[in-house]
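User: quick one, sequence for these tokens?
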């Protein structure tokens, strides 16, 4: 279904960005937190700079591939369900068109239209494109914009890699004795910026969003560093 242009161009809604925005913000934040936490944990165990960088790069590679595969599988399942519903609706429209018409009219009546008007609307939409009307109003699915597993996989892997690269860059630039502070500062700044950008694009409160990911990411990195320190002491 093609997008209908609004008669009020100044009325720009944000909810249409929800899917890709969620994936992008989640990918960046997951990349920063997971890779930075692993590097801090290894660093706290008194590892060498070479080991810390190796751990970071391995975490980036594994995380990006895991995100890509996980997103591809989950979105493929969603797309399979959408296609299955589309097939069910097509068969039902062929075998029981009157029942499907009554069902659509009932949906519109339940949403607030008078019974007569609801029936007229349902009949008009059935004449125009019955399949599209049922997919949209009965199932909430856009027939021409089904879930895209490949796009979701590339977007998740790409955003994860971007986030994961920042703590690795910090470890490359700074000496080992400065590594922990550099990784923490780079990571927390990235989290705050990504949270604020996500809120700006989605129409949310930028400071609150930045604070949420800042505190959550900081807690995750602190806990992982503590675990790495304790494990490093216990096996040394």
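Assistant:
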């Amino acid at each position: 279904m093609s997008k209908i242009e609004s008669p009020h161009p100044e009325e720009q809604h944000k909810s249409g960005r929800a899917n890709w925005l969620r994936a992008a913000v989640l990918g960046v934040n997951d990349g920063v937190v997971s890779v930075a936490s692993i590097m801090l944990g290894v660093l706290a165990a008194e590892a060498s700079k070479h080991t810390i960088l190796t751990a970071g790069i391995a975490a980036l590679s594994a995380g990006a591939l895991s995100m890509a595969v996980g997103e591809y599988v989950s979105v493929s399942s969603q797309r399979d369900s959408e296609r299955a519903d589309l097939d069910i609706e097509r068969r039902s429209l062929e075998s029981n068109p009157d029942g499907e018409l009554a069902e659509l009219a009932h949906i519109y009546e339940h949403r607030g239209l008078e019974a007569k008007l609801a029936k007229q609307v349902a009949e008009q939409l059935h004449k125009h494109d019955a399949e599209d009307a049922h997919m949209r109003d009965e199932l909430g699915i856009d027939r021409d914009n089904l879930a895209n597993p490949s796009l979701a996989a590339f977007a998740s892997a790409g955003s994860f890699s971007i986030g994961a690269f920042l703590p690795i860059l910090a470890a490359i630039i700074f000496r080992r004795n400065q590594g922990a502070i550099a990784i923490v500062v780079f990571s927390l700044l990235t989290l705050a910026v990504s949270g604020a950008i996500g809120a700006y694009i989605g129409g949310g409160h930028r400071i609150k969003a930045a604070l949420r990911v800042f505190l959550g990411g900081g807690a995750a990195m602190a806990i992982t560093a503590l675990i790495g320190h304790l494990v490093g002491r216990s096996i040394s």
